[in-house]
Amino acid sequence: MPYIPHTDNDRREMLATIGVQTIDELFREIPENLRVAPGSLDLPPALDEPKLFSHLWEISKKNVNMADVTCFLGAGIYDRYIPATVGAVISRGEFLTAYTPYQPEASQGYLQAIYEFQTMVAELYGMDLSNASMYDGSTSMAEAAIMATSIKRRERVGVSEAVHPHYRQVLNTYCWSMGIDVVTLPATESGATDYTGADGCACVIVQYPNFFGTIEDLKSTRAAADEHDALMIVVADPVACALLKSPGSFGADIVVGEGQPMGVAMGLGGPMVGLFATKKSLIRQIPGRIVGKTKETHGDRPGFVMTLRTREQDIRREKATSNICTNEALMALASTVYMIALGKNGMRQVAETSVRNTQYAIAQLIAAGAKLKFAHKVFDEFVLELPKDPTMVRDALLEKGILAGLPLGPYYEGLDNCLLVAVTEMRTMEQIDQFAACLKEVLA
Amino acid sequence: MSHLAGFRTKRMPEPRLIFDQSNTGRVGCNVPVADTPEVDLSEVLGDVREDLHLPEVGELELLRHFTNLSHINFGIETGFYPLGSCTMKYNPKINEKTAGLPGFANLHPMQPVETIPGALDILIGVQEMLLAITGFDEITLQPLAGAHGEMTCLMLIKAYFESRGEGTQRHTVLVPDSAHGTNPASAARCGYDVKPIPTREDGNTDLEALAEALNDSVAALMLTNPSTLGLFEPNIEQICDMVHAVGAQVFCDGANMNAMVGTTRPGDHGFDCMHLNLHKTFSTPHGGGGPGCGAIGLKSHLEPFLPIPVVRRSSAGVVADYDRPASIGRVSAFYGQFLMEVRAYTYLRAYGKEKMADISRHAVLNANYVRARLKDVLPPAHDRPCMHECILTAEKYKKENGVRALDISKRLIDYGFHPPTNYFPLIVPECLMIEPTETETKETLDEFCDAMIEICREAVESPDLLHDAPSTQIVGRLDETTAVKNLDVRWFPPTV
After folding, report:
1. Residues A291 and A253 in one domain
2. pLDDT at A340
């Protein structure tokens, strides 16, 4: 086994140094009846490396992958280009195989990269600061809601119906286990949020753009939060924030989101990277790691460390701000490289290309026989109303090599005839024309 | 001192922040310009933001920046990384290659489930192999990390008691004082009161204290086995019986599964559920502190409450089941850490039935070897064979030479090794927790032990060498108090 380098001679010498005859003797504290004989478990046989690779290759080919179809599916995970530099950086063993930087002197590379990550996430969101990342967008949102309940000392949170349904399901699970009520704030006819039910809530949570693609009016979110003395939490698409006014500029208290669109493979939704940014005044309540700049104890060189550690589980135990231990460092690094590679101009260009493609797609798809469900402004995603069953339409288009989007019936009452469509910078005019032509055929 | 050769020295220039390398107009990736018609952005979007302070650098500058940063970061591929409780084993390259296959990496989590049969094969494959290894009845791969898995287990336990009308009554979770901090934090996160249970001097759970703490207000005992002291709990069956006798559940913290793979199955010990860290035991890379990957195993009485989706076999093949009325709901947005599951699957199939037990057998062999070689300079905290990690104490150097475990650790960096875990578990004074893992050669262990013995000699003869360590890195010891006092957690653009 190449991963275990011991020779027979090594084993003999090591056992002699330890003072036992066999490896089995080292396990003598495990009651005999609880031991199983080596090689006796019900497992498939071992594969050598070439067989292993072709086995996995065969399994992978059974899936329809997004490089083989034209993808108009978004719903929180986006088909965006990942620069080649991202893979080159995150596959470096010094990053890939490191652990949490508990020893800062030997981890300055990662700590600095995370400091740069925190800076750019805060910048995109228009917030004072960001943490070192969370598991994913959904758990980031749940943590933000729980943080709000402990700040406001209330056991109720308000979440817009137009927030990603899976995120709301995760929020429900987290809140159920802590005895927190979740109030759903309904979406209006226009696809934006109605805040009238937010009484007594520690926070109001909206998505920006929301699940339907609608660019929520964050001014009214701020006003609603103020009216109920609640925190304003925004789940924001970081790429959209390269063009839209930042949530921070509207006075958001906490901004969270999914970092996947910035350099992380879709990977069936994992691993992702949760973004988490706040106002400075809330820093001591933040969950997760935070990297800070300092200098040597006996010298002048600057350096980076994990800071405000007394919030964390390994020190505070049951009194910690969260049970989270790891952040999502490798994916945060991928996003860091992405934000740097694209930079100010590239980020805007990706956003603008998506907007242009989206506007063009809306016009073509309407011409093909679909209707726009909501009249609101959108960024790169929108809801179509179809004269035929959206699931049937999607399946028919998939046979033509187009993944048309997400049928909303399973998620929302009253949207049975609706399809959620996303158009990123990856789509071309030709692909959009093709989509419209095929849709027209299917609807005919 | 051969490790010092070629290792970074303090002479290296400090890396600049990427923001200080920015120059207006540069770009590091050729991104598409739309071929669709132009639009008036403010008409389409409303107000458009004007400022966006992101760096502007070229592609080569970007790569040099990160290559230079990587040179001042220590990973398993840099050198020996005996960080106790973290199982820093080799992360095989074939796993990276399979996880990068387009048929895995380019899957959208919301694409029709009928289009991902291969992905479901991977998920069920990992589940079934973990079932065989752990001896549980069910596995879910939904949790995104170890702590997330702990929390999910406690949620299952909570849902189980609620279904029996005992939800309010059972509000306490017992946690040994040697447990990882995530255990009490996860219990608190599930709304439980946490009560610590002491550990006896020999490292075993204090059964009398446990008996005293057990009553019908207890929901669960969270036990790490082997314990964080690196010791197998020989009374495990009795402990599980005692907890079950008052109607409570036993959770196993699986951080130390590497000691058990192929040798003993926690499901047979009497545990009701456990979490596994695929990033420890099953070699998915730690990535600098995430992505973690936290499968959980459970007995059938907890099955109705599994988070959705439940990936299982049916007459229609492998399905993702959402029709689960008693489920706790979702704990993560999609299918868990899928690409990590691909890596774990690859790893498990590389070992297979024949070789799986080699993992725990060599992990335990390596730990006992280090323990034996160091026992004269750093006595083990307990006079018993250790499992996959050994816990040593540097107390005598603190008393006699004013040298702490932390100083020994920092000096190890100068010798080219990553330090072990310090000051954990909290109950061992001046603790050094060394987990070599099975993937290290005898030669590496010998070099490490030689370095430790040398450092212990230095501790007596020239303790300042240790107090001032490390002296070979880009920075010396950093001032963490100042970091908290003068919080600087981001760069700001210069004000014009």
Report:
1. yes
2. 98
